[in-house]
Amino acid sequence: MSQHGPTASAIILAAGVGRRLGAADGRPKVLLEFGGRTLLERHLAALRACGVEEVSITVGHGRERIEAEVARLGEGERVRFVHNPRYREGSLVSLWAQADRLRAGGGPLLLMDGDVLYDRRMIARLLAAPGENVLLVDRDIEPGEEPVKVCFRGDRIVDFRKRPEHAHDWHGESVGFFRFSGAMAAALADRCAAHVEAGRTALEYEEAIRDLILAAPHRFGAADVTGLPWIEIDFAADVARARAEVLPRLEDEPS
Predict the structure, then answer these.
(1) How far apart are CA 128 and CA 173, in angstroms?
(2) Is the keyword Magnesium assigned to this protein (predicted)?
(3) Residue 199, number of CB atoms within 10 A of its CB
């Protein structure tokens, strides 16, 4: 059982090509190594430490290598793979590929970007936060259009986008980790399906979440992880920064 009550499960999005990173060997970003462990190994260990056993991974680019890593780790019993053959399109399509899992119901469902190096305390905070639908937010946000902003008016989320449209008091950066109730996860599947059916397959998955937030902002909350170390790996400079600045600060990292 998780700290939140009913047993949670997780979806990890790991299908993308990672064009901006430009890895010479073409490896999926989730297989990048930090401190001798891949991001995928770290994800699975962090989830297990927080009581999350059932994991579904969207794969596409380099799927065989990801499947081989799961086998190497001896995690085949708890991991399910969902193949997205359209992985060169927007990440919304990779989330839509998980529609069956999103609609399966049950306990809380975590949604996680695969290309993040982070302290496992983030998962604990996500599970322990009050409310049914929760976004992780870091108030220490870097300027520019790249970060996805979680925008607040008072304590209510009023926008969720790289380039927000709605007036707000302040914003933080989305970590790319979420917790949804069974009902909201099913609604998310419906929003993804609507975008795909309308041909909007270049969208990122955040747009589907934004639809739900704007429709019912009172049903969403945020867990503050400001001060905990983490980084999303998009560019080569992020890899260097992850190794130099983030890795040494992780709570579960041997000194």
Answers:
(1) 20
(2) yes
(3) 7
Position 5 confidence tier, pLDDT thresholds 50, 70, 90: low
- Burial of 172: CB neighbours in 10 Å, binned 0-12, 13-18, 19+: buried
pLDDT tens for 74-109 read 999 999 999 999 999 999 999 999 999 999 998 899
Total residues belonging to the chain: 255
Beta carbons of 59 and 82 less than 8 angstroms apart: yes
Q: In which band, very low, low, confident or very high, does the pLDDT at 3 lie, cut at 50, 70 and 90?
A: very low
Q: Do 2 and 51 meet the contact criterion of CB atoms below 8 Å apart?
A: yes
pTM > 0.85:
yes
Q: What gap in Å lies between CA 79 and CA 44, rounded to an integer?
A: 9
Please give the helix or strand (H or E) that residue 125 lies within, else none: helix 121-128
